[in-house]
Write a structure and sequence with these properties.
Layout lengths: L7 H16 L9 H20 L5 H13 L5 H19 L5 H50 L2 H10 L3 E6 L4 E4 L1 H7 L3 H4 L16 H9 L5 E9 L5 E12 L5 E10 L1 H15 L9 H12 L6 E10 L1 H8 L1 H18 L6 E6 L2 E7 L3 H15 L4 E3 L2 E3 L2 E10 L5 H17 L4 E4 L2 H22 L3 E10 L5 E12 L3 E3 L1 H11 L2 H23 L9 E6 L1 H4 L4 H12 L6 E6 H4 L4 H13 L2 E7 L16 E4 L14 H16 L3 E4 L5 H10 L3 E2 L10 H13 L1
Parallel strand pairs: 11-12, 14-16, 16-17, 17-18, 18-19, 19-20, 20-21
Antiparallel strand pairs: 1-2, 1-5, 3-4, 4-5, 6-8, 6-11, 7-8, 9-10, 13-14, 13-21, 14-15
Helix pairs in contact: 1-2, 1-4, 2-3, 2-5, 3-5, 4-5, 5-6, 12-13, 13-14, 16-17, 18-20, 18-25
C-alpha cells in the first residue's frame, strides 16, 4: 500500500490531479485528460503561491480564472467544479504549516477573485465571438441578398454552412426557409418550422419594444433591428438568442423578405444568472446578502410617499461565545438554523429576510399596513428564537436584540434607514438584550452625536480644543481659599462648550481617558505652580492645592504612578500640592493590586480624596484600608440644608459622617454649596472645606487668584 505524498510538489500534483478529474468531463477540448492535467499544473502552482503569499493578490487570482476560459473551460459547470475543488482541497494540499483559519479565509477570497476573472474573460471572449458573428452575419446578409438575385447555389452554400441560425420569412411573417443551425437550436425539423408564423413566437419575457420594431421593419420603416429574445422549445426549455432581423428588398428597392440571424446565448445567460446569484446571496445561509438587500430597500424607498415600509434589524446576543467555546463550524450551523427560522417568518408578499454579515440579519416588509405588519413580523422573529437549537448534542438557547424602523418611503435613504435600525438594535442590546426596540429620532440623534464626538475626541486633544476651569475650595472656618478642583471642558467647533458629562464616558469607553487625564494633570500641576509662585507668600493658610479627578480607567493604568511623579518633578512642584479625587463607586470591592498605586502616591505625599462619598453603598469599614485623607460628601446629603430650617434627618446623617471622618483623621469636603444658610450649617456641623456656586462657579485660573488675593489681604 503506497503512502500518501508528503512533499509540497507531491501535494501540489495531487491537487492538480483532483482538479483535472473534476473539470475534464465538462471541458470542450481535444486534449487527453493527462494532457489537460499538465495544462492545469501551472495554474495550480500559481494558486498555491497566492494562498501562501504575504499580501492578497486579487489580480493574480483573476488571471487564474481567466486562464480557465483560455483552456476552453467555458461550460458553467466547469467554474462551479473548479470553485468546489479549490474550496475543498487547496488549503488541505497547499497551505503548508501556517494558520488554517487564515488560509481558509484567503482561499475564500481567491475563489471570489477567480470567479470575477473567469466572468471577465468569458465576457471578453463572448464579445469577440459576437463581433466575429456580427461580421459573419453582415457578410451573410450581403451574400444572401445577392444570392436571391444572382445564384441559388451560392446562397445555399452560405445558408446551410453558417454557424448561426438563419431563417427567411415573407412580410406576412410566414417562415419560408431555415438552415441546419436554426433547426438544431429549436430542436425541430425543417418541415415543422417552415410554414410557422413569426408572430406565434411571442414570449412573456419579450422586451416591450420587440414587436413594435418588428412592425416597423415589415412596413419598410426600418432596415434592421437587434435585441435579445427568448423562444420556447418543444421540450419546455427556453432558448435565449441574440436576434438580428434585417429587411431584404428586391432589385427595385421594394421590401420583399425578412432575414433573421440568431445566436444561441442560453448557456452564457445561465452562467451570468449563476454569477449574479452568487454575488447577491450569502454563501452560508443562501439568504439574500447586503448587496441584494440594499437594492430592494432602495427600490422600496424610491416608491414614493404612498408606500410604507417596516424593517427589523436583528443581532444575536452572545454569538461570539458560541464561536469561542464550540468553534466556528458550530457557529455556522447555528447561523444556518437561525436563517431557516427567520425565512419561515417572512412569507407574506412584500417581505424578505437577508443576512448582512456575521450574526446580523434584517427583515423587510412593505405595504400600507406596515406599522402593524412590522410589529407582527418582529413578534414572529422573537418567538422563532425561543426554541433551543441543537448543535453537536447541545441545546443552545438563542436570543437576539431587535431594532425596528417603520415609516413612509421617500423621506430617508437606505443608508439612513439601516443606520437608524442599527442604533435602535444596540439600544435594545444595551437594555439587556433579548428584546425589541422601536426607532426614536431623538435617540438616533443622540447616538449619532455621541458617535461624532467619539470620532472627534482623538484629534480634539491634538488640536488643543480642551481647556480647564477651576472651582475654588473654601475653608468653612475662616472662608479662605485653600485650593481648587480642575474641571476639564471641550470647546467643540460645532457644539460649543461641552461639560465632562458629555465626553468623559466616551473617553473612558475608547481608552482616550488616559492621555486626556495625563494632559489634565500636566495643565493642573503647571497651574498649581503658577498659583504658588504668585500667592504662596501672601496667604496665612499656606499654598494653594489642586484637586484632579482620577477615572477608574486611569486608576488601573500601569503608568499612573510613574506619570504622576514625572509631571510633578518636571513642574518642580511638591506632591502635597496635588490631591487626586477617586469616586467611591470605583473603589467598591477594589483588591490590593488596584489600591497599590494609590498607596504609593499617598506615601509620596499626594492627598487622596474619596469623591461622591455616600453614593457607592460601600462598607464604612473599608475606609480603614483605603489610603484616603479627605471625604468629599455628595451633594445629595446637603441639598436639604439650602432652606431654613434644615431637614433634621440630613443634619443627623452629615453629623454622623463628619464625626466618623474626624475620628479616622479624615477631612470632610462638601460639594454643591449654593446658599449662605447651607454654608453656615455645614460649618456648625464641623465640615472642613466646601465648594459650590455660593462661593464661585468654575472659571479661568485668574479668577481663583483674585479670590485668594482678596482673602489674603483682607
Amino acid at each position: 500500500m503506497r503512502a500518501e505524498p508528503d512533499g509540497p510538489e507531491d501535494r501540489l500534483r495531487r491537487f492538480t490531479t483532483i482538479w483535472s478529474r473534476a473539470v475534464y468531463p465538462v471541458t470542450s477540448t481535444s486534449l487527453t485528460r493527462a494532457e489537460f492535467e499538465e495544462e492545469l499544473r501551472p495554474l495550480a502552482h500559481r494558486l498555491s503561491e497566492l494562498l501562501r503569499a504575504r499580501g492578497f493578490d486579487a489580480d493574480g487570482a483573476k488571471a487564474v480564472g481567466g486562464a480557465l476560459v483560455g483552456a476552453h473551460c467555458t461550460d458553467p459547470e466547469a467554474l462551479a467544479r473548479t470553485l468546489d475543488c479549490v474550496d475543498a482541497y487547496l488549503v488541505l494540499y497547499c497551505a503548508g504549516d501556517g494558520p488554517q483559519d487564515e488560509a481558509r479565509m484567503r482561499s475564500s477570497r481567491l475563489q471570489h477573485a477567480m470567479a470575477a476573472g473567469y466572468a471577465e474573460a468569458l465576457r471578453e471572449r463572448t464579445l469577440a465571438e459576437q463581433e466575429s458573428i456580427a461580421q459573419a452575419a453582415l457578410r451573410a446578409q450581403g451574400v444572401v441578398a445577392q444570392a436571391l438575385h444572382a445564384s441559388e447555389a451560392r446562397f445555399r452554400a452560405v445558408f446551410e454552412g453558417a454557424a448561426i441560425g438563419i431563417g427567411i420569412a415573407d412580410l406576412d411573417g410566414t417562415v419560408l426557409q431555415v438552415n441546419e443551425a436554426l433547426m438544431r437550436m429549436f430542436g425541430l425539423s425543417e418541415h415543422t418550422l417552415r410554414g410557422r408564423r413569426v408572430q406565434d413566437w411571442v414570449h412573456p419575457e419579450d422586451a416591450p419594444q420587440t414587436w413594435k420594431l418588428y412592425d416597423e421593419l415589415v412596413r419598410g420603416e426600418r432596415e434592421h433591428y437587434h435585441l435579445e429574445k427568448a423562444f420556447n422549445r418543444p421540450d419546455g426549455t427556453v432558448l435565449w438568442t441574440n436576434l438580428t432581423v434585417s429587411l431584404l428588398r428586391d432589385a427595385d428597392g421594394a421590401p420583399q423578405y425578412q432575414l433573421a440571424l440568431m445566436e444561441d446565448t442560453t448557456e452564457r445567460r445561465l452562467l451570468n444568472l449563476r454569477l449574479r446569484y452568487e454575488a447577491t446571496h450569502d454563501a452560508l445561509t443562501g439568504l439574500p446578502n447586503r448587496t441584494l438587500f440594499f437594492e430592494r430597500l432602495e427600490k422600496v424607498l424610491g416608491a414614493g410617499d404612498s408606500q410604507r415600509f417596516g424593517l427589523c434589524y436583528l443581532d444575536l446576543d452572545g454569538f461570539k461565545t458560541v464561536n469561542d467555546s464550540l468553534g466556528h463550524a458550530a457557529g455556522d450551523r447555528l447561523l444556518v438554523e437561525v436563517a431557516d427560522r427567520l425565512q419561515s417568518c417572512a412569507t407574506a408578499p412584500g417581505e424578505m429576510v437577508a443576512r448582512l454579515g456575521g450574526d446580523e440579519f434584517v427583515a423587510l416588509t412593505t405595504g400600507p399596513g406596515s406599522e402593524r405588519a412590522v410589529d407582527e413580523l418582529a413578534e414572529r422573529i422573537m418567538n422563532a428564537l425561543i426554541t433551543p437549537i441543537s448543535i453537536d448534542g447541545r441545546d443552545l438557547m438563542v436570543r437576539g436584540s431587535l431594532g425596528i424602523v417603520e415609516g413612509p418611503s421617500g423621506e430617508r435613504t437606505a443608508a439612513e434607514v439601516l443606520r437608524s435600525a442599527d442604533i435602535t438594535m444596540y439600544r435594545a442590546k444595551s437594555a439587556g438584550g433579548n428584546r425589541s426596540e422601536l426607532a426614536d429620532p431623538e435617540a438616533d440623534a443622540r447616538a449619532i452625536t455621541r458617535h461624532g464626538l467619539t470620532t472627534a475626541l482623538p484629534t480634539a486633544l491634538e488640536r488643543g480644543e480642551f481647556f480647564i476651569e477651576y472651582q475654588p475650595l473654601v475653608h468653612l472656618g475662616d472662608g479662605s481659599v485653600r485650593g481648587a478642583e480642575a474641571l476639564v471642558r471641550w470647546l467643540h467647533p460645532q457644539h460649543g462648550v461641552l461639560g465632562p458629562d458629555r465626553f468623559i464616558p466616551l473617553a473612558e469607553h475608547t481608552g482616550l481617558i488616559v492621555p486626556l487625564g495625563r494632559w489634565v494633570l500636566e495643565e493642573s500641576i503647571r497651574q498649581a505652580r503658577a498659583w504658588r509662585e504668585r500667592h504662596g507668600e501672601e496667604s496665612d493658610a499656606g499654598p494653594l492645592r489642586i484637586n484632579v479627578n482620577l477615572s477608574p480607567c486611569q486608576l488601573s493604568h500601569p503608568g499612573l504612578v510613574q506619570d504622576t511623579v514625572e509631571i510633578l518633578e518636571r513642574a518642580g512642584v511638591a506632591p502635597d500640592a496635588l490631591c487626586l479625587e477617586v469616586t467611591e463607586s470605583a473603589l467598591i470591592g477594589a483588591d490590593d493590586d488596584l489600591l497599590k498605586p494609590l498607596h504609593r502616591l499617598a506615601e509620596m505625599g499626594v492627598d487622596i480624596a474619596l469623591d461622591d462619598f455616600g453614593t457607592g453603598y460601600s462598607n464604612l469599614a473599608n475606609l480603614r484600608r483605603l489610603p484616603v485623607r479627605i471625604l468629599k460628601l455628595d451633594r445629595s446629603f446637603t441639598q436639604g440644608m439650602q432652606q431654613f430650617p434644615a431637614d433634621p434627618v440630613d443634619l443627623k446623617i452629615v453629623e454622623g459622617i463628619v464625626t466618623l471622618a474626624h475620628s479616622l483623621d479624615l477631612a470632610v469636603t462638601v460639594e454643591g454649596v449654593e446658599t449662605g444658610a447651607q454654608a453656615e450649617q455645614l460649618r456648625i456641623l464641623g465640615c472642613d472645606t466646601a465648594q459650590g456656586w455660593y462661593y464661585a462657579r468654575p472659571g479661568p485660573p485668574e479668577r481663583l487668584h483674585d479670590l485668594a488675593l482678596v482673602d489674603a489681604t483682607g
